[in-house]
Design goal:
Length: 600
Amino acid sequence: MTHPASEPNPQAMGAAAHRAGDATSAANAANADARAPILATTAVTKTFPGVKALQRVDFRLFPGEIHTLMGQNGAGKSTLINVLTGVVAPDAGTIRLGGEVVAFASPQEAEAAGVRTLYQEVNLCPNLSVAENIFAGRQPRRFGAIDWPAIKRRAQAALARLDVSLDVTRSLDAYPIAVQQMVAIARALSVDARVLILDEPTSSLDDGEVSQLFKILRHLKQSGIAILFVTHFIEQTYAISDRITVMRNGEREGEYLARDLPADQLVAKMVGHERMSARLREAAHEGHVSHEGYESQERQPVRQQTVSATQATEATQPTQPTQTTEATPPTQATQATQATQATQATQATQTTEATPPTHPFIELQGVGRRGTLQPIDLDLQRGQILGLAGLLGSGRTETARLLFGADRTDSGVILIEGRAVKLRSPRDAVRHGIGYCAEDRKKEGIVAELSIRENILLALQARRGWWRKISRQRARELADLWIERLGIKAADAEQPIGLLSGGNQQKALLARWLATDPQLLILDEPTRGIDVAAKFDIMDRLLALCANGLSILFISSEISEVLRVSHRVAVLRDRRKIAEVAGKASNEDNIYRLIAGSGE
Ligand SMILES: Nc1ncnc2c1ncn2[C@@H]1O[C@H](COP(=O)(O)OP(=O)(O)OP(=O)(O)O)[C@@H](O)[C@H]1O
């Protein structure tokens, strides 16, 4: 996510991390060590079968500070939060709240003690009113009956505390997700909260909404509330944090004042110096690590960077000539050839950005669906990434769903390799070599009760037909291959996928589609929840696949990310395509102008 203009320049992160207006609270945070932490753990340990999720973790959170928990996928961040909030019990170690040893048996107990948590997905009732949501389960009563005027008044007051004014009698789902989040915060704070924990609260918010949330958090910390924040966005970490705790492999790597920890060092600590890829190390060394971890100061798109032969070899994966062939590990010889091809192709892209595309894999001509998407022309070239930029609700996901046959079109023609086709269902799309990594991994992606292996093999098996079962041994080999390739942190391929950390589930979803050796991969927010180093790695792998002919439709609400990876960018607004940009025109300012309707 790009950073709101009003926030500090992330390139100057570290020493200049604090805004002038925050000087007092920064000083407070720096002096915090002299005070007692409001919430602390000592040697907290939690083991799941085969995984040491937390190993003797010491953690401290001070009143009136914003403290960010950082770490790669599977590092133990959510587990630490779950331990702090009574969701899981630690195997060993102590938790103290306000100096007293506590052992919360449930989140309700933690809440009653003033430790309030806001999860990634807003956990409210969409069909109840805002006021009912804020007071659900603890409505003020008068003479035994629910006191509605009081509920309304107190809900308004709770929101006013956050500088939000809403019609509290309207149902929650009448408001956008960002507002719903404010309501969730108001609910969390409507009882005495001493600690507010936010687990990746910004992943569905746009820049303006992030700014608004941060304003509220700063306001809350001034009132002495301790805030624990979890995010993968480095830029946001520096915009909001006084203190950072870095987790690595279930251990606390260290605790730092944000202003003393430059971003490149933060990434090195998360990843472990020894495990940093060559490019990440270089970017970190040169101080170019930004919120995606690998951005050069000139915002050079990845597509314009040259992939070295070694990097391409690492990143390249096999593409087989026919769709039905399963992905197998490449031989050294094929790897070398692919590496050369990848290098050549990437270098070619660098110098021939303006070269007209030669071979579309798929073309949409006037394709639309009433009420969902205005007729759109779009083509995806072989070996290219087409980015879709637009705000939430602009038609990005709708376009993806039409391309994948998840929704039926009611106008226009779809051509694959020049021949008109009908994509009536996802099954049709898969048959034509199209894969779709959906935005909402819980609803449309993972099947929580199935194993990681079964989840990875799902699309491939569906394409082969369920009657032609992939042998168990082959399935294991393939699953192990993809687990290793994408660095999925799991004890075993047979674990239920629901037990993986969020970022690792996302990687498994990507593996599901890569295992089908697709011709076109639709990626809807593919890096949401994925840590900075893994993002870097995944994008490299996708680029190498593109060099071998894969087409990608890349959707992300982070415009900077779309720009970095895409050869061309189609801009959507109000469910129609309003522009397509490439080359010099594809810069962030221009795209924001187009989205805002002032650049056409
Ligand atoms: N209930 C569980 N059963 C088994 N393993 C679990 C369970 N919960 C977490 N784990 C494992 O513990 C490790 C730490 O997971 P955790 O969710 O705390 O990581 P995280 O740092 O929050 O990752 P992410 O950034 O991907 O959300 C992971 O290997 C995960 O698979």
